[in-house]
Amino acid sequence: MTAPATNKLRVLILTDEGLVPDRPRTKLKGRQAEVRKTEYDVLGGLQRLGHDVYCVGAGSDLGVVSRAIARRKPKIVFNLAEGRPELPFSDHHVVGYLELRNQKYTGCNPRGLMVARDKALTKMVLAYHRIRTPRFAVVAQRRKVSIPRRLRFPLFVKSLSAEGSEAISQASLVPDPDKLAERITFVHEKADATAWGTIFIEGREIYVGVLGNELLTVLPAWELTMRKLTDGTPMIATDRAKWNPRYQKRIGLKSGPAALPPRTATELERLSKRIYRLLGLSGYARLDYRLDGSGRFHLLEANPNPQIARDEDFAEAAKHSGLAYEELLQKLLTLGLGYRPRA
Questions:
Q1: Domain 10-107 has what CATH class?
Q2: How would you label 182-214 residue by residue, b for 16+ Cβ within 10 Å and e otherwise?
Q3: Residues 207, 286: contact at Cβ < 8 Å?
Q4: Which among 48, 263, 272, 290 could bridge 201 via Cys, Cβ 3.0 to 4.6 Å?
Q5: CATH 3.40.50.20 domain extents, the chain
Q6: What whole-number distance in Å separates Cα of residue 127 and Cα of residue 111?
Q7: Where are the alpha helices (DSSP H) in 285-324?
Q8: Per-residue pLDDT tens for 63-113?
């Protein structure tokens, strides 16, 4: 068992409004238990470290957060808030509010959140710096579907703002213009979101965790595999693959250390640090890549403040590097306390 932290801190855990750990964990079932596990794991881990912990949910009324800070006077806010579902990319507003109050917090800064949450903007920044990322096109709601000729089929279509594989299925991979228009309409109407299509990169799915503000630590590369997929079925991290245990078992979904040649692993570490800095990230993030058959990495997404439940990839990779779960949480607190906003 991890020893209690040397310095006991007063910590305010900030979650989304509906995810406050306010009931016995044993009463949570199915998807509800899966969605809330990060909040419960972080709460339990910080308590085991000996910190004085309180939880509050961030919604449209930031007065709730203001009153909690005034009443509890936390040394640091452990930020797990992702923003309001009806207002994508809103988590940077919450963190900006904390900075205006000179309140220390864990995780990424407002600018890094704003850039990385906008997947199209992320790709434009990285393309400028000649970092490989799949070509794409954005199709806003109530706009005519128009895809540049430089994009070749098949294309992968998803919501520009959704997280956690929401509204992603095998049908998201479209082979021709007719299916493309059909899927874009689905995203517009069912997900009520801007759609975007990217060239589909066939290859291995690799995740890399990065920790730090100025001095960066890159965690071991982690690979997602689906060993029981039928021949010809593309490997896609669909909504069912993320949330449905029965489906996960059926497709043989596993994640674990990626077997990479030393030279390739070194290249990936260097690339991950460069991307992290170019996007202005801080605290911690997970970078999602595809490794194609020619040995080239293509960045799919940058995810600041990724899930850090005990059994999620980020925490598992940290454990593989020798950092136990409670030690990881303490590291995130230390990074938050040491972060200084830049002008």
A1: alpha beta
A2: ebbebbbeebebbbbbbbbbebbbbbbbbbbbe
A3: yes
A4: 290
A5: 10-107
A6: 19
A7: 313-320
A8: 999 999 999 999 999 999 987 656 656 789 999 999 999 999 999 999 999
